[in-house]
Amino acid sequence: MPIFENADRSTTTACSRSTPGLGGGGANPLPMPPLLDARPGRSFALRVQSGTTSFYPGRPSDTLGYNGSYLGPTIRVRRGDDVAAVVTNGLNADTTVHWHGLLIPGELDGGPHQIIAPGATWRPTLPIRQPAATLLYHSHVHGLTAEQVYSGLAGALLVTDDEEQGLGLPSEYGVDDLPLLIQDRQFENGRLVMPGGMMVAMQGRRGDTILVNGAVNPLAAVPNRLVRLRLVNASNARIYELSFSDRRSFHWIGTEGGLLEHAVALEAITLAPGQRAELLVDFTDGRSASLVTAADTNSSMMGGMGMMGRGARRTDAAAPATVLRFEPRPLGQARASGVVPTLLASRTGPDASKAVRRRRLSLNMGMGGMMGSGSGGGGLTINGKPFDMNRIDETVKLGSTEIWEVSGEMMRHPIHIHGVHFDVLTRGGGQPDVLDQGPRDTVLVKEPVELLIRFDQPAKSAPFMYHCHILEHEDNGMMGQFSVA
């Protein structure tokens, strides 16, 4: 796999500190990313660096990370603060840091236009003006996004506020409030490899091994009470169909844009690349359980052609799997198990009657996509046009409300729109699915889906992106950009 060298390589065996002590069974204690709380100084610092990570004992792999060798710390910011970020690139390659889900102006967004050159430092001040939510940060340098994220450049970004803190939700970080970055990766002889070949551009990189917070076969010790799981799909391409091995129900309380108005009792939930979901799971019965995923069946018609290339064995990558095992025990601050709040968050969404324009986006997959071509002549495009850094595809008026109808060819595509949260109005001409509800920034499309969007963030000096969040699709042309002024 490509290696990004720098002078300050670090070595680690996974993310950082683990959930409290566990035993045997070949499992690895779930690592917990260090918490980088921006509140005290209204600031935080990240260093993008290369290093080595031993996912398996004695088998070091070349990886990338923020403030470490793989993945990054959990950054926590508070609504109302202006937070000074300091991001230094210690690689020998360009990078960016995109604050996925943060509602900020285009020039602060960290997309392809906010390049951080090798050795350079980027100092954006981030105005935090949105409700509590679980967000994501990751590399977004055009043409290298998939490679850099696969190698480790991703982390969780949490927004908190008074309304959320008044709900009594589990909030002891790393004990009953757990960020869980879920990824699939490919290994050969215990070392991380980067799948290549013609089909990778079409299907996205898939792996035969699921990691959580950088750990293989993770086991989480959790308190025998209500626990908050902040699920982040940080995979390049895999869609997870998640449920518990004992078929226990849980409460879904939050989407990409923040808390739902009411908790929703579910037994399964779908999580596409770039999506987040907050769950409350009751472990008071003390029974162990596993979070499992069904087979990933999302592939184009070409998926059976067997041309995936090195390390991309689709039969392994698509199989059902255990994601994370939970072992309840008395832990953390002694307290009674909480109750699920009846009302979570009040919210005024966009008004469909005020929509001033309708736009249509079609996420296209021509045969040229097999070659990873973003230069036209078919391939991976939106409305038939491959991404061009120098072309503004759509121009939107600041403060306006619009309806965007998005559809995808050949397979399900997770469409992500920067700088906004949106509501799903319709799916396939009918009512949205149960899992479409709440404020979103990433949603799966194949059949036409209508999105109601209010554009409250300016993007005049630098545009916002919209793209498929299968990262190989994005890198190879399935992306457009829009200005807001």
Automatic annotation (TrEMBL):
PROSITE patterns: MULTICOPPER_OXIDASE2 (PS00080)
GO molecular function, one term: copper ion binding
Name of the molecule in the record: Copper oxidase
Organism, scientific name: Sphingobium cupriresistens
Stretches with biased composition (Polar residues): 9-19
Annotated CDD domains: CuRO_1_CueO_FtsP, CuRO_2_CueO_FtsP, CuRO_3_CueO_FtsP
Domain spans labelled Plastocyanin-like: 48-163, 376-484
Domain of life: Bacteria
UniProt key word Metal-binding: yes
